[in-house]
Task: structure prediction
Amino acid sequence: MSTWPHISTVILSATALACFTLPVTAADAGFDTLAKRLQAEKPKFAQRQQAMLAERYDLSDRPSTTTAMSRGKPVQDGVRVKLPRSMTWEKLAALSPQEIRDKQLWPAGFLPLPHPHHEVGGMVFPEFLITEIKQQTGRDLTRFDLDFDLPDHFLPEFPSAIYLTTRPDLGDVSQGKLVTLDNFNEGFKDILNPKQLEGLRLLLTPFPQQQFNASDDRRSLKASQGVACFDCHANGHTIAATHTVGDIRPNDHRHRIDTPSLRGVNIQRLFGSQRAMKTVEDFTEFEQRGAYFDGIPADAARKGINVLERGSQVHFMAEFQALLDFPPAPKLNLFGKLDPAKASAGELRGQKLFFGKGQCASCHTPPYYTDNSMHNLQVERFFKQVTINGRTASADGPIKTFPLRGIKDSPPYLHDGRLLTLADTVEFFNLVFELKLNEQEKKDLLAFLRAL
Result:
């Protein structure tokens, strides 16, 4: 079946404002009325999103029998993006970008991924995090108007491992637990100094956010304390929680965010997928002042902005974040390349492709596999602008080069999570870079990425 948007999908997207009543504010109708209306509309938008995902992707659970994340969760095997009718990856790669665009053959799964309800956006958390946070702390991160959309088997393992640059001898210090305000002191008081421990406490402390607060236009049934940094970045990593960026307008052009891992923050020099902020302190402060409230200062003031003190609180939070290390990669040498005595033949061939024909190292340089720069992939040359489920697919613009160390632990991929597996990522860049890799080369490159 073709995965290019069906006429019905495009019509539904184009007429969404007419078909569905968008949320009203509490000023228009009190909180109870607002909640009832959005709860009644929730199934319609959930069905719309799931239909789009099923049309774009093979969502079946096909775990790898050979590759797992740091704490044992298998990665998902195979390319999951569906191709247009009667098309193969080899045929598609043989076409020019202009031909793919003119014939509308760009796979829909390679288009920007809409937020679970793009017209309203906001933070959305996977159910496993909601359950654990509620059990440990009593806080409820459930939204009454929408749920997270991607199946759990495509998400990072939970809870994730924690590695510290200061104590590599300890390995994973998570003890298999989600770190929260209830247990952080017991788990870290003997391995952090007091300043770092206070930074961790602040990263675990909930503060008001656009959808989770005490106002009458919140999206939680009960007044909420808010959201903590380590709700999205659980255990300093990621759970693929999603949001929409606060710095793009109009709304249909706003990017869905796939929460990036905080592992390796100490070697990064740019922060934010597009904003290119220069320090983690800048980013930490920006999140509280801007991103938490969709870049709307009036909402921030009304809902309870938490203004962090730069010289102590922001600095303490940044210092702890800078301790978060990448997972061990036993096949890599101290230069970040494969040790021939430990790597397989396929992984070594993949490394050669990575630094050669694949052109991957043009942006992803060892030992951490990032150049700390921004690059514009110009993917829009492959498709005509189209609006699907409230998201207009157009030019993405420059995107930060994310580190590839430990990449198998961080699905889904790309800045908005549109690529569910590393195999999808290889096919995507084979087309975008016009590499014309053969099937064996793709397998070898995938093997190398999984070894990083």
